[in-house]
Amino acid sequence: GAGVSQSPSNKVTEKGKDVELRCDPISGHTALYWYRQSLGQGLEFLIYFQGNSAPDKSGLPSDRFSAERTGGSVSTLTIQRTQQEDSAVYLCASSGTGVSWEQYFGPGTRLTVT
Amino acid sequence: AQSVTQLGSHVSVSEGALVLLRCNYSSSVPPYLFWYVQYPNQGLQLLLKYTSAATLVKGINGFEAEFKKSETSFHLTKPSAHMRDAAEYFCAVTSIQGAQKLVFGQGTRLTINP
């Protein structure tokens, strides 16, 4: 079946604008993760959704970042009042049930804040 | 808390030579360990995983890794490098206690010399 998809693939925005990044997980996967990949910080966890449980937001770097997951499927990561340090590749992953909790990654959204 | 250290941000080997990418982890609970590969402008692809079964794990593309609890290591090897193995490799750890965030190492860029 289809893998994890993300849109847009590239986004260029001006400092101070809001952006929304979308993730479509693998059908049937109950868990969804957002990570950020940047030159200075490597791969960082941002937020994790599991079923109907409250999300784990412990990795969000500031209150300008938020995410939601509608209907247990599609997720949107929103960054308000973007800053240049937000420039990075934002990766989404999903996983199903089972003992290995293997995460499958999407191709990412490259965000550039000018 | 969990952490991963990858020794060597860049590794260069000749085509046909042994590939050895080092990963050491720190975890206060039994870990799950993963190696992911990232080709240019692509997302992360799972190479292999350790989930408390066999300590020698075989993955895709001829790679394997051995979990050594006494050394807290999970080094990635391949007997004979191919040009197509040139990519960035990430070691990651998570908790054995269910779907959790991945904690990644800083990555190792593998270059293959003809």
- The helix content of chain A, as a percent range, equals under 10%
Mean pLDDT of chain A: 92
* C-alpha geometry of chain A: globular
Provide the residue-averaged pLDDT of chain B: 92
The major beta sheet of chain A can be summarized as:
6 strands, mixed
**Percentage of β-strand residues of chain A:** over 45%
Classify the oligomer.
heterodimer
Strand content of chain B: over 45%
- Number of distinct beta strands of chain B: 11
- Structural class estimated from helices and strands of chain B: mainly beta
Total strand segments of chain A: 10
By DSSP (H or I, 4+ residues per run), the number of helices of chain A equals: 0
Q: Sheet bearing the most strands of chain B, described?
A: 6 strands, mixed
Secondary-structure element pattern of chain B, one letter each:
EEEEEEEEEEE
Largest interface: A-B, 26 and 23 residues
Number of helices of chain B: 0
Low-confidence stretches of chain B: none
The helix/strand class of chain A is mainly beta
Order of helices and strands of chain A: EEEEEEEEEE
From the alpha-carbon coordinates, what is the Rg of chain A to the nearest angstrom? 13 Å
Structure overview:
The complex is a heterodimer of chains A (114) and B (114). With 114 residues, chain A is mainly β. In chain A, 0% of the residues lie in helices and 48% in strands. In chain A, strands 2, 4, 5, 8, 9 and 10 form a six-stranded mixed beta sheet that branches. Chain B is mainly beta and 114 residues long. In chain B, strands 2, 4, 5, 9, 10 and 11 form a six-stranded mixed beta sheet that branches. In chain B, a hairpin with a 5-residue loop joins strand 4 (31-38) and strand 5. The termini of chain B are far apart. The chains are: A mainly beta (114), B mainly beta (114).
Salient structural properties:
heterodimer, A: 114 residues, mainly beta, 6-stranded mixed sheet, 10 strands, 0% helix, B: 114 residues
Task: Describe the secondary structure blueprint for this structure.
The complex is a heterodimer of chains A (114) and B (114).
Chain A: E1 5-7, E2 10-13, E3 19-24, E4 31-38, E5 42-50, E6 65-69, E7 75-79, E8 88-95, E9 104-105, E10 109-113
Chain B: E1 2-7, E2 10-14, E3 19-27, E4 31-38, E5 44-50, E6 56-58, E7 64-68, E8 73-78, E9 87-95, E10 103-104, E11 108-113
Parallel strand pairs in B: 2-11
Antiparallel strand pairs in B: 1-3, 3-8, 4-5, 4-9, 6-7, 7-8, 9-10, 9-11
